[in-house]
Automatic annotation (TrEMBL), chain B:
The chain crosses the membrane at residues 6-24, 57-81, 93-112, 138-158, 179-200, 220-247, 254-274. Pfam families: BPD_transp_2. It is found in: Cell membrane. It comes from Neorhizobium galegae bv. officinalis. This is Inner-membrane translocator. GO terms for molecular function: transmembrane transporter activity. It is a multi-pass membrane protein. GO terms for cellular component: plasma membrane. Keywords: Amino-acid transport, Cell membrane, Membrane, Transmembrane, Transmembrane helix, Transport. Belongs to the binding-protein-dependent transport system permease family. LivHM subfamily. One of its GO terms (biological process) is amino acid transport.
Amino acid sequence: MLNRRMLMAAAGVALSCLAAIPAAAQETIKIGLILPMTGPFASTGRQVSAGVKTFMAMKGDTVAGKKIELVIRDDAGTADQTRRIAQELVVNDGAKVLAGFGLTPLAMAVAPVATQAKIPSVVMAAGTASITKASEYITRTSGTLPQYSLPVGTWAAANKIKKVVTLVSDYGPGIDAEKWFTKEFKAKGGEIVEAVRVPLANPDFAPFLQRVRDAKPDAVFVFLPSGAGSLFMKQFADRGLADAGIKLIATGDVTDDDILNSMGKPAIGTITGHFYATAHDSPENKAYVAAFKKANADMRPNFMSVGGYDGMALIYAALEKTKGDATGPAFMAAVKGLSWTSPRGPVSIDPETRDIIQNIYMREVKDVNGELQNVEFQTFKDLKDPEKADAK
Amino acid sequence: MLTILFDGIAYGMLLFILACGLTVTLGLMNFINLAHGAFAMAGGYVTVVMMNRYGISFYWCLPAAFVVSALIGLVLERTLYQWLYQAPHLDQVLFSIGIVFMAIAATDYFMGGQQQLINLPPELSGRMDVFGVGVGRYRLFTIIVCAALALALQLILSKTRFGSRLRAAVDDRRVAMGLGINVPLVFALTFAFGSGLAGLGGAMGAEILGLDPNFPLKFMIYFLIVVSVGGTSTVSGPFLAALLLGIADVAGKYYVPAIGPFVIYALMIVMLIVRPNGLFSRGGR
């Protein structure tokens, strides 16, 4: 253990020495993209890397006179692999920026590497609030669960929903979602009848749904990772919960644009809160969706892809600002306070927490020209991550 | 209450149909086939492809899933599995777990890693009230099909010529061959049949359990629990075990959600202590 630490520290020192050599000497900047490209979370990896590639196809591969080189590595969704790959990328391949990270534990595993080697790390998908606290070299372009669970609570309380059962996956992000929805909903006068936590590897939702049905709430608030979410959706409809007058409200993970269309009729009418929908109406998004579909004909860009796209936008903008200097402190200084117009709308990086500030949209699933889409109907403007804002 | 019982039975039936193929290979042929879930997954994907790409009716997909999985089973048995019948169990485990990983990677490559969804015909979706008990139509369908299969399987094994040949071949391979029974053929057919059942289970389970490339690993534990609790010498043992576990799992998650996921394991431990050779074992062998 001690040995590994010393090795890491040595690597860090070596790197900072390397970085001290005038930046003009190196013509390419390597970006190490670590994603789960295989295993249960492969769809995250596919979407993020497609978003990243779409950005490079649209904006070219040079910024501030430097050529950007992308190295994509697969960690199969296991944290120790992520960490090993991060070390290899930094030490052997000379990557200047790390990016990707499909899940919270994967991002957490890289935090010590980022801190010790002073390598800027851009989180493009993982959503637990605490990640950016793990290292001051971590920034994020996806979103946090508190950030998009809280507005769902605000919306529910304002729309004649009095009693709610929460149903979340029993792991970090699920508990984040439950906590912040509950907090906001109660503060606005709502009542939580019951809080159900579903094991992450759960084959059948029947007993939990029956519990929800018997509690007779006005609505059920749901957070589940996207694959499980679609299964849940079908069973929700099958069990006749909608007919029993129970509304389905959720975070956008459940109506993931990537698979929304294959969920079919049961999904229609679901209300969700999230930061990006393929159907978002803006010229930036139209251009993005068109470019994305040109390269990936059978895929629909979802929120993960836009996290990847914006991650690259952030890296480009920061390098532009530092005139191509990718060393940790300079890069991170440039990142703080950056703002740009993303396909999802206006976004900026909070200078204090290095987390993203963005609009959260309330959407309803509707049939648009034969395709199911998340159609936005209300916007909560410029939300910070409430967990870190609260801690102050 | 009755709804929970009903859901539990449906879930248990599904577990049975998925696991009974394993009972056949493990109990009758004495071969540890951890790749059993891969055949189930093959059946599930056959259904998904037929329904979503070619718009074929769900009812045709079920027999197709059975046939395709059985054929894959037959081919693999002839080319790979048969060489390992005499091998030690550890070799069999290593070999079949390797097949699982290959199946996962191959599925991920060809079909993508996302959750696959199917849309059931309208008469099977939704629920209806039977004497005041809410009953999911698809779950009712599952129960009927699985119960019929369990009955058929029991009859085939105990009453037909093929069944007795198979039991003879298992009990003493050499004597059976000496009596003119074509043991390799019997084994190949049995293996294919078991695989086919798994495929059918995968096709029926796609709606309730979901389907993605990790299916074989995700449900391997459940198969093994059913088989170990039920014992491998009969069909009725795993059948009852699957029902019991299904009901316990659903009821546990409904009444005590905080510890719900552990109920099934607790039950398994208790059962294994009380009846280490399975529910209806004929005593230790």
